[in-house]
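Pilot study result, target chain (426 residues):
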Amino acid sequence: MEKVVKFIDCYIETETCNLKCHYCYIALRNKFKNHIIELQRSPKEIQSALSKERMGGICLINLCAGGETLLGETILPVVKALLEEGHYVMVVTNGTMTKRFDEIITWDKALLSHLFIKFSFHYLEMIRLNMMDTFIGNVKKIAQSGCSYTVEVTPNDELIPHIDEVKKVCVDNFGAPCHVTIARDDRTGGIELLSEHSLPEFYDIWSTFDSKLLDFKYSIFKKKRTEFCHAGMWSYWVDLNTGEYKQCYTGDTLGNIYENCDEKLVECPVGTKCGLAHCYNGHAFLTLGDIPGVDTVTYAETRNRLEGTDNEWLRPEMKAAMSCKLYETNYDGEVFTSYNKERKVAYLDYYHVIKNKYHMEDEKQNVFIIGTPDHGNMGDQAIWYATQKLLKNYFPAANVVDVDMSDFETDIEGIAHLIQKQDILI
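Predicted structure:
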């Protein structure tokens, strides 16, 4: 099997839904709208923007809207185009769009082997709207099609009295309890737990589902990541409507996927400067290997049930794809001979960041102006201005760059490692 080289988390701007869950992060932030935003780009354009050639290989691509992903008419043609490109595709849905599932199960088995449906089980809404049979029927339909799937519940305090009922529905119909995530409160800067219970109390209540998804998310919840993260290099966040792509949810915007499709995506990892309070979706980014050295379960383990049986929720090809570690597919094992794995990877990426930051090219002379002032002293600014003009006049073909005073301490080690004989330090 060709291994996954990148994880692409795609956002679809539709922020409406046929359900009204009180714990929904869109509703909590007053972003709920009453109209569907269709994708404006054609399936062919999106396929080209995320082509295997451009990505450097097969990707694991997640599609999730702010509301219900499958409401729009333009989603499934894009899913199919990405599958035809050879990628593995995941779709997040509330499981009520029967018409969409009826279409999916008509697709070629080879495509379905690369497709994964994440069914979000909103138990109380299914009861209120009398849609339980619809939800169960659609999950079974997908399970019998050759497609991979999981069933996941968002735990909330109002659902606690119904825990045994939720388990029974899942065991009776899907063969195992659903997985459990952790509800977060996006209204808070620290991305707090959305519950009246403490985190240990919350875990004690919901751990009866024996969910590896919950176990892992609990282990990382509220833990700030300070290691070197490769989001922005091995994984990206993409707005499929606008084409904007970023390192991660709060990372830097790196470009637009619909521009310069013959060029690779910009590689600029987050490194040690993650802007999030904690990696609340680390069940994907961390388990897939964005941070080497962090010991995790595989992403497949957080999604699968009934492992080793004929009714396993993940089909073999999807299970293998979800078991990949990005640090293994993006680095040759030979680079780890001199250092332990974590340190070597961190230094490789540190040098990569410095090289990109200062536009260093192997075949071009680089001239560094060390200690460029980042304060308002006019005398120092005048010296810098005159120095830069002089250097550009004498070295017109060179890459003349500034190393700010504030960046000197962190960047000089990388510059010293990367400079060549023809380079000049001022």
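One observation from the pilot: The first strand starts at residue 4 and ends at 12. A full batch analysis is planned for the follow-on phase.
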